[in-house]
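Please decode residue identities from the backbone states below.
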């Protein structure tokens, strides 16, 4: 009996979708980041573990949404959805910059208009914007890794 170890064509097509890979690696990397920064938010240190995990999962899903929006923006601006096959410094920087801009907008809304959370005393805050520095660093550090993993997966 011969066993076929190659995935079915439809499975391979799904696996090779850049969006799926962006979402997967954005989720994995951002979830770890969110868990590590949990003490930087007011009241999270005292929150039961299951609630903290749920909160970090929700935040991570937001990060995935930002990553997909940034991915599609770069695709629209620079030649299509297959750009992770040919990552350049400009494409990765654009991916990160869009993520930073969306994050700034969301943090301003979440902390000022919607009052969804507040920062603990440990959170470094940018004085003029009054938003946290750590999520901005997140969007400077993680995008190159996300694209590196996606590039490796797709090639």
């Amino acid at each position: 009996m011969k066993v076929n170890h190659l995935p079915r064509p439809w499975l391979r097509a799904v696996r090779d979708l850049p969006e799926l890979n962006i979402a997967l690696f954005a989720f994995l990397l951002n979830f770890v980041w969110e868990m590590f920064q949990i003490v930087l938010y007011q009241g999270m240190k005292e929150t039961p573990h299951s609630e903290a995990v749920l909160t970090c999962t929700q935040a991570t899903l937001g990060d995935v949404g930002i990553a997909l929006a940034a991915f599609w923006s770069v695709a629209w601006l620079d030649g299509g959805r297959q750009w992770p096959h040919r990552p350049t410094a400009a494409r990765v920087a654009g991916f990160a910059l869009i993520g930073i801009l969306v994050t700034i907008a969301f943090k301003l809304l979440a902390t000022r208009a919607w009052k969804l959370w507040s920062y603990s005393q440990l959170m470094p805050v940018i004085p003029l914007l009054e938003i946290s520095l750590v999520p901005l660093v997140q969007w400077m550090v993680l995008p190159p890794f996300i694209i590196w993993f996606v590039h490796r997966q797709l090639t």
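Observation: The CA atoms of residues 116 and 150 lie 32 Å apart.
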